[in-house]
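[recover] target loaded
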């Protein structure tokens, strides 16, 4: 990070290691507005700069995790930066959507709300305990036309190749954005882990690409800063799979969101347009840290 960020590195480390984690409430658009939530809870909940449907929780606000409104699915509590991937994915009613690593449901609950009960959401994860939480959260959010699967992504890709209009891969990663809230994330980090996770991410991205219908969108996200797990993984997938192309995300850019840094990765990554990626940096805005990129499977050429 020092080599990449220069003078900014100290600010990143101070924010990513020492500042208390940020927490937000993201409202269920069919069940509440942020204004109603402010009235109901008495908390000021200033809007997250890059996500108008989410408000920031302050240290003195009531803990909203045990509130009846939470049980009623009026909102989801999450790191504000974690709202970005599902916003960028912008699921549309009627689409077939797959969240490949979905538990406990921070993105899937938003995808389901955007589908509005039309289309289908498959929310998958490999971890049994986390999958149970995913079911609870989707039920709490009143997700309709959603099903939860617990399958290896490669197995799903064999069963449902080419079926989805939108695939979201919120990949397991080295979790550098989690350092300030998880001692475990700090303890288990190593350079070898970054390399191992990048290899897993490449495999998962291949499965995600197999699952896309022609013209389908693929949103890739991590909560880590390392370019090896972000721009480099995406650029390598583009180089391996000529049916994929980057999508422009400048429409989704907003206050506090930064473009990707393909210039930090080596080789072919430099060809990835910076505008196909977004980053949330904890020293520049609210949120623990996030990387998002969007790709598309080229539509099939029309015959005749
Ligand atoms: N999308 C979730 C959300 O918004 O609440 C968070 C997902 S978390 C970043 C990554 C997930 O990947 C974990 O739930 C983990 O169980 C799952 N995972 C880990 N290894 C995996 C693998 N090899 N294949 C598929 N999923 C995996």
């Amino acid at each position: 990070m020092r080599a990449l960020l220069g003078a900014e590195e100290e600010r990143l480390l101070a924010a990513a290691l020492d500042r208390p984690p940020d927490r937000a409430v993201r409202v269920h658009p069919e069940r509440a507005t942020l204004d109603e939530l402010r009235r109901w809870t008495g908390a000021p909940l200033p809007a997250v700069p890059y996500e108008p449907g989410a408000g920031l929780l302050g240290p003195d606000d009531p803990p909203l995790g045990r509130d009846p409104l939470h049980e009623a699915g009026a909102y989801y509590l999450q790191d504000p930066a974690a709202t970005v991937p599902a916003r960028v994915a912008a699921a549309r009613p009627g689409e077939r959507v797959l969240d490949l690593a979905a538990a406990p449901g921070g993105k899937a609950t938003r995808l389901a709300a955007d589908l509005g009960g039309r289309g289908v959401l498959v929310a998958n994860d490999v971890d049994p305990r986390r999958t149970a939480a995913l079911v609870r959260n989707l039920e709490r959010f009143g997700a309709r036309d959603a099903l939860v699967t617990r399958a290896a992504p490669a197995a799903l890709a064999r069963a449902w190749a080419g079926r989805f209009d939108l695939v979201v891969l919120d990949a397991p990663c080295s979790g550098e954005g989690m350092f300030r809230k998880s001692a475990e994330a700090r303890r288990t980090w190593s350079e070898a882990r970054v390399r191992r996770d990048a290899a897993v991410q490449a495999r998962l991205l291949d499965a995600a690409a197999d699952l896309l219908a022609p013209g389908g969108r693929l949103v890739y996200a991590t909560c880590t800063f390392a370019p090896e797990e972000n721009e480099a993984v995406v650029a390598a997938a583009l180089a391996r799979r000529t049916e994929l192309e980057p999508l422009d995300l400048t429409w989704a850019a907003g206050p506090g969101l930064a473009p990707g840094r393909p210039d930090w990765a080596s080789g072919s990554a430099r060809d990835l347009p910076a505008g196909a990626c977004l980053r949330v940096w904890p020293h520049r805005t609210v949120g623990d840290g996030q990387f998002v990129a969007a790709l598309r499977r080229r539509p099939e050429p029309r015959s005749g």
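[recover] notes: The longest helix spans residues 191-211.
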